[in-house]
Amino acid sequence: MDEFPVTNFPVEKLRWRPASVSTSGGQTLTGPGQDASWDGGGWWVAELVGIDLGDEQALRAIRALLLLALGGVTRFIVPMLDWPLSPALSSVPHGDGSPFADSSEYVSGAVAAHLAADVSLRDTTIDLYLDPETAGPLQGGEVFTLVYPTHGPRIHMIGKVDSVTDDVYTVFIRPPIREDLAAEAEVDFNRPRCVMKLNDPDGEAWPWIVPGWEGKTDLRFAEAFDELS
């Protein structure tokens, strides 16, 4: 499966958000009605707005990708580009806490994390180990990817940290776990990514071209749920 080259196309705005489906019971005689979700935990939607297609090469590249996307039939792995919000440490001192002689420190590498216990389909509370040598404490709002055997890479967001014991975090996440996974599976904070399809049933993503052979377009993706072949 190809990865959609998001970094090849400068964008004005980028938004990832969880989508869901809910229903309301309506107003009751004694007070407010009740709302209920029936979407299985929701799915991710990604919006790339104001993609700058400033030359012929960019126009050819986006047209080729849109052709391959087939209006939403083809699946892509779409990266989230969330590194500014990663828990990665910006710098790391020596083991005794001291920097180099010029006061500089090591530059942080990849965040090391894994599941501390087995997880099951639809779990929303999980235990994960986070190496304190590679990351700061979790606070909520961080995203990570788990790679599932059937469904491939999927993004989850931490909504709340319930407890921390010996660098093992018990956290509430959404969307829920997509498939059973065993302890020690990698929790990838370094490159959040998700299997998605282009959401473009009317072909609006195909760019208008203005004089000078320039253009702009918007792309919208939705998480894809069919099994990987």
Describe this protein's structure.
The chain has 2 domains: 6-22 and 38-80 and 195-223, Phosphorylase Kinase, domain 1 (2-Layer Sandwich); 109-191, Elongation Factor Tu (Ef-tu), domain 3. The protein is elongated. Strand 11 and strand 12 form a beta hairpin. It is 6% helix and 38% strand. Mean pLDDT is 86; it is low at 35-39 and 98-107. Strands 1, 4, 5, 13, 14 and 15 form a 6-stranded antiparallel sheet that branches. Strands 8-9-12-11-10 form a 5-stranded antiparallel sheet, with no helix packed on it. The chain has one helix spanning 56-69; strands spanning 13-19, 22-24, 35-37, 43-53, 75-79, 91-92, 106-107, 113-115, 125-130, 143-148, 152-165, 168-174, 193-198, 208-210, 214-223. The chain has 229 residues and is mostly beta strands.
Layout of helices and strands:
Layout lengths: L12 E7 L2 E3 L10 E3 L5 E11 L2 H14 L5 E5 L11 E2 L13 E2 L5 E3 L9 E6 L12 E6 L3 E14 L2 E7 L18 E6 L9 E3 L3 E10 L6
Antiparallel strand pairs: 1-4, 2-3, 4-15, 5-13, 6-7, 8-9, 9-12, 10-11, 11-12, 13-15, 14-15
List keywords for this structure.
229 residues, mainly beta, Elongation Factor Tu (Ef-tu), domain 3, five-stranded antiparallel sheet, 1 helix
How many DSSP H or I helices?
A: 1
SSE sequence, one letter per element: EEEEHEEEEEEEEEEE
Mean pLDDT over the residues = 86
Q: What percent of residues adopt helix (DSSP H or I)?
A: under 10%
In the CATH hierarchy, the third-tier topology of the largest domain is known as Phosphorylase Kinase, domain 1
Largest sheet: 6 strands, antiparallel
The rounded Rg comes to 21 Å
Structural class determined from secondary elements: mainly beta
In the predicted model, the low-confidence regions spanning at least 5 consecutive residues are 35-39, 98-107
